[in-house]
């Protein structure tokens, strides 16, 4: 038998511990209460005041509209996680996140994830952090690889039906993946569905990146231009096993996420000029822009179908689109029918390419041209590609 | 009297709660163990593998050197907090943080701080998060306003002596402040100490920003060119009281922090081209670069002294610096002696300016020219300034 005072002491200790635990949990979990209506009121407690100020500043007409949009982010790594955080802080209506990877300490050289999250799935960890940051945003996360057959069907279904109003398609798909296969899967899905999307990428040497807006039928799709591969026919597991990994920097990935979400905001909220392609070369602080027309002979039949549809619409309502149509340069000897509209000179593009790294056999630079027969030199960067599409075409014809 | 089994139950509950509490605390506080030596080994548990890969990629010769550098970040807001996080994740040796503000929910539209931190001082909250992210970095934080007399002296002392090796100056000072007075204080300190620093800024309409490298005596200082003010003679408290606040976006601030830290890495680790000035206009995705020579008639006597010293050094070791000297354009009718070397045309600069917001009386756009006698129109942006320095000089002569 024990004394009453002992029981009282133990009970007091339990209450003490429970209180401390609830304080500790509150720190992380209850960020702030829900906000039903965005307000422009200038209060320290209003998380939307500086966004709503965009209206008074004459930048955005109707900022509140942001709450009606749904964006799917595929890949929640160095670029995708920051992209999701920016959209969350801007008060987007709903985010769909797709990734099948786990957080590792090896990811700590980029923004967003923290060491205590190592081992958690990226989508779960991201959802937890993002809900704390802005509980007004709706989240739907999928912890799977979109490139397997079943998952691809489910992915197609969710981007077709996963908007705020279930049954409606998302407003935009953002590709923040790090491999060719996943980019091709997104491209295939968006061509079939006529879904507008944006592509993003960072080179394996960490010092360049790009974003690209894809409008099926109107702009080049990912299959229209010769494919750009991160590591030809080698998956990341192999890379790791061989003791080789891509370089990455929080700076480059932060800039790419920043210009990506800026383009998303301009597209959704209708301000400024939406870029079709914006590159970032960190070595020279050079930012090339361009627009690319679709390839009439694209391998993707849905891309060709969308092109036909776009032409029909254009014929019915001419002069809808301005930017791609303007300053058109036709490369007459280009049998792929791809047209580049570059706003920079060839010299500028040439000056912008970084050094070509010395890599082990089988590993190539990000966005290099895969050589089926190993007949092409391994290291050609995207800048080389942009520099001279004709040259590239000539080489491919010879394969 | 109570039963033994009750005491056992209570004790078990206490153990359970203690375990849960320690797990909860561990989540936040013990991010990862210290790492004595940076390694390039490709392991999921190595937070430096993707940074050390910059060496194999041929970008950086000696990445480990990052651990020997100390950087001071003044202002831990939308740009400064992300700047500090990027440097922390890159494994910088030591960070000094200066800010006197508290975290507010109104800051949640930018990256880094989270709602549960509202009410904490920015430097404390930042130190806590950054230590969890990378315990290898040393932190020194100062929760004060650098512009008051005593604090300014202490600030001068810490940038002169606060390096990893106490008594040595920091390697770089980064200005991430949001007001004219603080920028001028940093400028005064760095001119007196001959301390190299970088300036950053984001406009009040949230859609443009810039970074600038300042080398006392070699480049224009903040007092050389006509001052650029956030809100002329009105402090932020007044702005808030009147129900007016500046707009801000996580995208623009993320991009500015990204290009700032990229410039820091290029400067410290000696790769790529370090930019003297890099602007970002989000409306047009336009990124002007330029370099500015110091004004021989600068109001700051220490700037003039540093100019003399630089000239003496230049005469002793000619051809040390290339970029500022190259492509020099002399504006002959410019009595301030300021020389602009712009890599963009006037048309491009003109095209890059966003709309001028409709603001209440007394409030002007970021980086406008303060009018002493209210004789100048209130809304002239930095783009206008860059566009035509001569025009501006003519106006100032007329005052």
UniProtKB/TrEMBL annotation, chains A, B:
Domain THIF-type NAD/FAD binding fold: 48-299
Transmembrane parts of this sequence: none
Assigned GO CC terms: cytosol
Gene3D superfamilies: NAD(P)-binding Rossmann-like Domain
Gene Ontology MF term list: ATP binding; metal ion binding; UFM1 activating enzyme activity
SUPFAM superfamilies (UniProt xref): Activating enzymes of the ubiquitin-like proteins
InterPro entries: D-isomer_DH_CS1, ThiF/MoeB/HesA, ThiF_NAD_FAD-bd, Ubiquitin-activating_enz
Family: Belongs to the ubiquitin-activating E1 family. UBA5 subfamily.
Function: E1-like enzyme which specifically catalyzes the first step in ufmylation. Activates ufm1 by first adenylating its C-terminal glycine residue with ATP, and thereafter linking this residue to the side chain of a cysteine residue in E1, yielding a ufm1-E1 thioester and free AMP. Activates ufm1 via a trans-binding mechanism, in which ufm1 interacts with distinct sites in both subunits of the uba5 homodimer. Trans-binding also promotes stabilization of the uba5 homodimer, and enhances ATP-binding. Transfer of ufm1 from uba5 to the E2-like enzyme UFC1 also takes place using a trans mechanism.
Protein name: Ubiquitin-like modifier-activating enzyme 5
Organism: Geotrypetes seraphini
Lineage: Eukaryota, Metazoa, Chordata, Craniata, Vertebrata
């Amino acid at each position: 038998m024990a004394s009453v005072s002992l029981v009282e002491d133990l009970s007091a200790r339990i209450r003490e511990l429970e209180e401390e635990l609830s304080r500790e949990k509150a720190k992380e979990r209850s960020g702030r209460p829900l906000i039903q209506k965005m307000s422009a009121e200038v209060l320290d407690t209003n998380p939307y005041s500086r966004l709503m100020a965009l209206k008074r500043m004459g930048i955005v007409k109707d900022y509140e509209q942001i709450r009606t949009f749904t964006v799917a982010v595929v890949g929640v790594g160095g670029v995708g996680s920051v992209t999701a955080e920016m959209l969350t802080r801007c008060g987007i209506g709903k985010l769909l996140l797709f990734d099948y990877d786990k957080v590792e300490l090896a990811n700590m050289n980029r923004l967003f994830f923290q060491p205590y999250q190592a081992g958690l799935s990226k989508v779960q960890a991201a959802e937890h952090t993002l809900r704390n940051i802005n509980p007004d945003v709706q989240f739907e996360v999928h912890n799977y690889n979109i490139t397997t057959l079943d998952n691809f069907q489910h992915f197609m279904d969710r981007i077709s039906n996963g908007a705020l109003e279930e049954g409606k398609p998302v407003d935009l798909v953002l590709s923040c993946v790090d491999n060719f296969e996943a980019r091709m899967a997104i491209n295939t899905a968006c061509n079939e569905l006529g879904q507008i999307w944006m592509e993003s990428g960072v080179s394996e040497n960490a010092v360049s990146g790009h974003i690209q807006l894809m409008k099926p039928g109107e702009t080049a799709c990912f299959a229209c231009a010769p494919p750009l591969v991160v590591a030809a026919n080698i998956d990341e597991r192999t890379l790791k096993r061989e003791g080789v990994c891509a370089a990455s920097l929080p700076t480059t990935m932060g800039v790419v996420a920043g210009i990506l979400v800026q383009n998303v905001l301009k597209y959704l909220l209708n301000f400024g000029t939406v870029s079709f392609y914006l590159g970032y070369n960190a070595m020279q602080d050079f930012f090339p822009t361009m627009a690319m027309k679709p390839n009439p002979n694209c391998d993707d039949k849905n891309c060709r179908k969308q092109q036909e549809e776009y032409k029909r619409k254009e014929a019915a309502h001419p002069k809808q689109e301005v930017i791609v149509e303007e300053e058109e340069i036709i490369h007459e000897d280009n049998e792929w029918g791809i047209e580049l509209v570059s706003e920079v000179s060839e010299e500028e593009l040439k000056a912008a390419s970084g050094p070509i790294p010395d890599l082990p056999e089988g590993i190539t630079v990000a966005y290099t041209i895969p050589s089926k027969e190993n007949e092409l030199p391994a290291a050609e960067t995207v800048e080389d590609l942009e520099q001279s599409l004709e040259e590239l075409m000539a080489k491919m014809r010879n394969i």
